[in-house]
Amino acid sequence: MKLPVTLKRVFGLARSNGGNPVKIDQISGWVKNVRPLKTITFVEIQDGTTLQDLNVVLKQGPPSFRPALGQSVTVLDPEIVQRKNQQFETICLPHNLRLVGATTEYPIQNKQTALPTLRKLPEFKHRTTYLSNLMRFRHKIESRLSKTLDELDFTLVKPPILTSIDCEGAGEMFKLKQDHWDKAVNLTVSSQLQLEVLMMGLGRVYCLQPCFRAEKSDTNRHLCEFWMMEVEASFIGKNETLMDLVELMIKNVVSSLCETEDLPKYFPVGCNNGVTERWAKLLQDWNRITYTKAVDLLLSSGVNFEHELTWGKDLNSEHERWLCDHFGGPVFVTNYPRDCKAFYMKLRQDNATVECFDLLFPDIGEIVGGSIREDNYDTLKAEIQRRNMDPNELEWYLNLRKEGTVPHGGFGIGIERLVSYLYGNPNIRDSIPFHRTTGQIDL
Amino acid sequence: MKLPVTLKRVFGLARSNGGNPVKIDQISGWVKNVRPLKTITFVEIQDGTTLQDLNVVLKQGPPSFRPALGQSVTVLDPEIVQRKNQQFETICLPHNLRLVGATTEYPIQNKQTALPTLRKLPEFKHRTTYLSNLMRFRHKIESRLSKTLDELDFTLVKPPILTSIDCEGAGEMFKLKQDHWDKAVNLTVSSQLQLEVLMMGLGRVYCLQPCFRAEKSDTNRHLCEFWMMEVEASFIGKNETLMDLVELMIKNVVSSLCETEDLPKYFPVGCNNGVTERWAKLLQDWNRITYTKAVDLLLSSGVNFEHELTWGKDLNSEHERWLCDHFGGPVFVTNYPRDCKAFYMKLRQDNATVECFDLLFPDIGEIVGGSIREDNYDTLKAEIQRRNMDPNELEWYLNLRKEGTVPHGGFGIGIERLVSYLYGNPNIRDSIPFHRTTGQIDL
């Protein structure tokens, strides 16, 4: 394999080399910083595989080109050491630094470029340390979420994006122009119904893929195209089991983050430099509270909320924010009134609430939503009729309850929201490479 | 965590328990087979997490219900052992086998249901051992492909499904009905162009997500919605490096398959029982041949092909098949004429061919396609103009070549084709849970 060696690999070798240099043929990357001194020039380069720079110390004058931000370069015969201040460094003679790709009008002139500006430079914004690191950070989070499920014998499956189901009720759907099929075809808003089919064959399933909502909300918490990790498991009858699983998955992520140095030194204005305290908080106990208790708390809080709250109404984001503040951390709110939630949720014995939960995080709101599903054919059919939905459209779904039905449930984790919260970046548009929101669809 | 124990876990414990029983509170699953004898009844159950059955040996008469295919059941207080014939078994008293979910008209009456019939039962087909195992098999393949890339410091990224780029040229695109944006929006046919953007920030990137082609081809090798693993890496100038990486990735998959017992005992008619020999073949050397040599070989073969071949024409599937037969295994065909391939491929010194490859597998044809990308601004712009494409549309893409451009390349692996080939199932419709093809869009 002739893939060139990465800085990440070389730094790993240098770290374990007891201060001795690691000699390689060459290393390539992009110039991230240039600091000319009187007799030497420092050229910091990165190759995208790690947060850390390689500090190229140019002695005996400058090279044949003028090093500048954004250029791609190759260093020949480097000897890379880790210095006592933890920095990685190589001394370089001028003729050993080679220009690969020049720049003309490199648009990212310094590290302090504001995020709104970067969002308008979709083809260049990932050259910043802050945003490229955010992508690596996301990869790590997704991998750790999957690992927990894999270890619990879940199978990763691939339900469709194109679907002819239009009754999930999770929001307005995008529709296809073409009539390749004899029915209307939409982009999925959630894979849950298909996951339930697969769960009946595979016992425990999950997926990680994009969902679509054709809503025009223009907030820092909504995207038209976003990724969800959706989970469905058989032989589970209680909310508590699902919440335990959610808590385990996210705490495993946080633990793995705490073990690494994955945060850039520089955070843009408005972003949270204190994420390590945020992580520590997430490793403590999480609160669980019923919807009914939550409403009691909110009503007795004395706060004059903008949206009036009475039992039976859905919580608004201001209410969710108050609850997180009140508990000082994540809160599971459980057992909402049946009419606040989707038709497929398991009716509880009180006939008024359903066996469900929303996980609320401070600042960002709902991160996960889940429920036990109604597995009784008659109860589910009655609910579909009560809501004036068409039972014929859902016959296939109802039929699952006729053939070897099992108690089961699941949930969906909003990936961009989770990543944003953990990275301390309040706008989820930066947690996906190219965001699709009202008015914006670049590349 | 109160998630119930899985059969996979229990079997693992029993396997390492030296023939001693593993005692647990209960185990649940679906009935896969019932064999009533004179005094005892065998009820085989599975919970979807493993290929193997638990054989429940009912002594002292039948339980309070009549065990039947497809029911969900719970066994209380089982003591599970692995017998000398490797089967897992528990002796069970009638009152310890509990019915969870009955059946009414369970549609999958025996293991020999033909695949075309199963495809018409999308909500039930994954209850078969053959198809549920195919989904687990796919998960394993995808995980192993990702692992190789992760170990080589690639970052998994999430390019968009919705895109305003419509000039990739890889096929007809699905379009959105809604006008949420001031330009036409399509479903992606390939993430390559966006991956190139991300590669410039992250060095090495890959994605694993659905692509869409609005073509009406109705073959066992085409889907309207299919998954690709697309890879893009910087500082690579030669085809050989990319082919080495492809070969490593797929050989790592095959090696991991060889170490496990992931094939059902039963294969439907038309499927390949001899896949283990197929795997062994894949671990040997793969052939690499230029397009020009391939054409010479085909022309001198004496075969009367249906589609006439001359240098400059693309290879047809009959030609690809002949090449694979001729070499008795996978073949990389490299350096196609420039007009056979997309505009972004690196022009070779001969000015006639491009630095690219197709990987052909026997029976199924192209599994992987890739190339080095043109990284020179002027050459790329000239090629775009030569093809009468609009350079304004591609200005952002051209600009990548102005700011720190690097030699780079990548490829896309067709997941369903790879999975089908490795599982010995000739129709890729079975390698995705719910296939979307001309005329068929269920669930």
* CATH homology-level superfamily of the largest domain in chain A: Bira Bifunctional Protein, Domain 2
Q: Ends of chain A: how far apart?
A: 33 Å
Taking pLDDT < 50 over at least 5 consecutive residues as the criterion, the unreliable ranges of chain A are: none
Return the structural class of chain A.
Answer: alpha+beta
The largest beta-sheet of chain A arranges its strands as 1-6-7-4-3-2-5-8
CATH fold-level label of the largest domain in chain A: BirA Bifunctional Protein, domain 2
CATH class of the largest domain in chain A: Alpha Beta
Descriptive overview:
Chains A, B: Keywords: Aminoacyl-tRNA synthetase, ATP-binding, Ligase, Nucleotide-binding, Protein biosynthesis. Chains A, B: This is asparagine--tRNA ligase. Chains A, B: One of its GO terms (molecular function) is ATP binding. The structure is a homodimer of 443-residue chains. The first copy, chain A, has 443 residues and is α+β, with helices and mostly antiparallel strands. The first copy, chain A, folds into two domains: 100 residues, OB fold (Dihydrolipoamide Acetyltransferase, E2P); 317 residues, Bira Bifunctional Protein, Domain 2 (BirA Bifunctional Protein, domain 2, 2-Layer Sandwich), CATH 3.30.930. Chain A is built from eleven helices and 20 strands. Chain A is elongated. The mean pLDDT of chain A is 93. At the A-B interface, strand 2, helix 3, strand 9, strand 10 and helix 4 of A face strand 2, helix 3, strand 9, strand 10 and helix 4 of B.
